[in-house]
Amino acid sequence: MAGKEAMIPLLTPYEMGKFNLSHRIVLAPLTRCRSYNNVPQPHAVVYYTQRATNGGFLISEATGVASTAQGYPDIPGIWTKEQVKAWKPIVEAVHEKGAIFFCQICHAGRASNYALQPDGEAPISCTDKGLTPGLDGQDWSPPRRLRTNEIPSIINDFRLAACNAIEAGFDGVEIHGAYGYLIEQFMKDQVNDRTDHYGGNLENQCRFALEVVEAVVNKIGPGKVGMRLSPYSKGMEAGDSNPEALGLYMANALNKFGIVYLHVIQQRGKAIKINDKYETPYSLLPMRKAFKGTFIVAGGYSREDGNMAIAGNYADLVAFGRLFLANPDLPRRFELNAPLNRYDETTFYLSDPVIGYTDYPFLEP
Ligand SMILES: Cc1cc2nc3c(=O)[nH]c(=O)nc-3n(C[C@H](O)[C@H](O)[C@H](O)COP(=O)(O)O)c2cc1C
Fold it and tell me: Which Gene3D superfamilies match (predicted)?
């Protein structure tokens, strides 16, 4: 990395809990749909080690916590021994390069269909309202509303998945509470229509998310747990009438568990510096100020606004999705201010083991 005087803010070191990071450029979780039959494949070693740097922080693609968790085909899982065994060499290879690796644990909830569910059953959710058929070009099936007494077993799925992730060698887990998947289905009032103590008001809507966090923290310890949220996202028909209040409530509530980081998706555009202040139509500043641990932002960031976010203390770390996907050597390119490969959306989520994720060129040495 560059000498101190030339160091851009994104390339400065940072201590995230007990992890010494050498820079602030995080690999965002990126689904690849190439873990056939939900088992991580050896070619994942190539993808993750391409993006691993000494002291860098990587978050895995969304990984299913149970056989009911899949929303896309060939998403990796972490609920069977076979999956844990398959993850081990991938995690080991990332560690050999000196990077820190968290597993993003996920349940898709209603963002699924019969074909992806065990025995072709209905996907589960907080509601029985389905996604609009054909939304995002997918074939969604109407969900089945979880009974109150079934909820502890889903929380247990997250707990076991976290335990398995640690057994596979991951440094921690990121609980996926974003983008309209199960946890967010509970949190958002556009989706949650429950009348038990998991719905009806903000506190009740956030109960499931916080019970998952509590269960995972109790199992593997707060220093190994992060959470991803997207209060402003309206994707998967999961909007909320008061995202500011939701985000702030969660940031404050998460402090009670002492989790190591909160990772929040910036909706539509990034923080822009105006008169020495960071402003955005959907500012994350109140959440950033409320949360006591490491704060990660993501969503549309470039080198320039990532640097501004760090320099202005808007965030501690910045996660890059599409840019890191298309530029396996993103930290080096940022260091040199080198041109970037353009990502090719037509190759996202393809089942091929190589095309679209591990075939982007590196800079010449
Ligand atoms: C191909 C692709 C797959 C994604 N998969 C996931 C995922 O598994 N989990 C998740 O939380 N977000 C996922 N995202 C969202 C990214 O992590 C990120 O938040 C989003 O792309 C915005 O950041 P960017 O502008 O830097 O790409 C995905 C995005 C893309 C483009």
Answer: Aldolase class I
- The helix (H) or strand (E) run that includes residue 105 is strand 100-106
Q: Ligand 1 test: best mutation among 24, 25, 30, most atoms within 8 Å of CB?
A: 30
Average pLDDT across the chain, whole number: 95
Residue 363 has a CB neighbour count (10 Å cut-off) of 14
Q: Which residues are catalytic?
A: 181
Q: 29 CA to middle of ligand 1, Å? A: 6
Q: Does 322 contact ligand 1 (Cβ within 6 A)?
A: yes
Please state, in angstroms and as integers, the Cα–Cα distance from residue 114 to each residue in 227, 258, 331, following that order: 28, 38, 41
Q: What is the pLDDT of residue 270?
A: 58
Question: pLDDT digit string (tens) for 301-315?
Answer: 999 989 999 999 999
By alpha-carbon position, which residue is closest to atom 6 of ligand 1? 30
To the question of pTM greater than 0.90 for the whole model, the response is yes
Determine whether the shortest distance from the Cβ of 102 to ligand 1 is under 6 A. no
Query: Is the separation of the CB atoms in 323 and 307 below 8 Å?
Result: no
Question: Does the C-beta of 158 come closer than 6 Å to ligand 1?
Answer: no
pLDDT in tens, 32-89: 999 999 999 999 999 999 999 999 999 999 999 999 999 999 999 999 999 999 999 9
Q: Best of 26, 31, 72, 179 to mutate for ligand 1, by most ligand atoms within 8 A of CB?
A: 31
For residue 149, the model assigns a pLDDT of 98
Does ipTM top 0.95? yes
What are the chain's domains? 9-347 (3.20.20.70)
C-beta atoms surrounding 289 within 10 Å: 12
- Cα angle: 192, vertex 195, 196; to 5 degrees: 105
